[in-house]
Each structure stands twice: as structure tokens, then as C-alpha cells.
Amino acid sequence: MSGMGREFMFYSLFMVEKYKLSDAYFDVYLILQNNQMNNNLQKYYLLKAYANGSESALSHMTEMFGENYDSLQLVNYNKELEQYLFDR
After folding, report:
1. d(CA 36, CA 66)
2. How many CA atoms lie within 13 A of 6 on its CB side?
3. Domain ranges in the chain?
4. 20 in the Ramachandran plot: left (φ > 0), alpha (ψ -120 to 50) or beta?
5. What is the value of pTM for the model shown?
6. In terms of C-beta density within 10 A (0-12 exposed, 13-18 middle, 19 or more buried), how is residue 34 classed?
7. Model confidence pLDDT, tens digit, residues 43-86
8. For residues 51 and 20, is the Cβ–Cβ distance under 8 A?
9. Residue 23: exposed, middle, or buried by beta-carbon count in 10 A (0-12, 13-18, 19+)?
10. Which are the contacts of 43, defined by CB distance < 8 A and separation ≥ 6?
């Protein structure tokens, strides 16, 4: 990741943590996707972007999860992600 990419990631994560902005979640998802980073984290940030109302996330939701996605997936995915990250 370039210096500018790291800086953009830093500010995107800052906006996610401080303001819970849907487009910031989506920006983090795009950065992770473009850098072929952890697929679980990509899904997490995409789901968070969608759950927080990002219009940009809609087409990516269908691409990642198919036609049958809903907000309940976020609850289930949070549990799976927490287990993956913290039960190691």
C-alpha cells in the first residue's frame, strides 16, 4: 500500500471510529479489496457500510453475498468475525 493509501486508510478508519460514517466504512472496504487484504475484514466493512445506509455499498452487497442478503447477516457476521479474531 502506498503512503497515500495508508494515509487514506488512517483517515477512513478515524471517521469510522469517531463518526460511524457509512461511506467511511465503504472506503475501508474498497481499500481492503484493492489491496487484496483479508476477505473477512472486507465483508465486515461492506456489511457495516450497508447497515449504516451507504448507497455505494448496494451493488457490492449483491456481488459479495448474492441477491438474498438482509440486515440479519450483519448480526451473524459480527459473531463469526469476533470468534475469528478473538478465539485464536
Report:
1. 20
2. 3
3. 3-86
4. left
5. 0.72
6. exposed
7. 889 888 988 889 999 889 888 877 776 655 566 666 666 665 55
8. no
9. middle
10. 64, 77
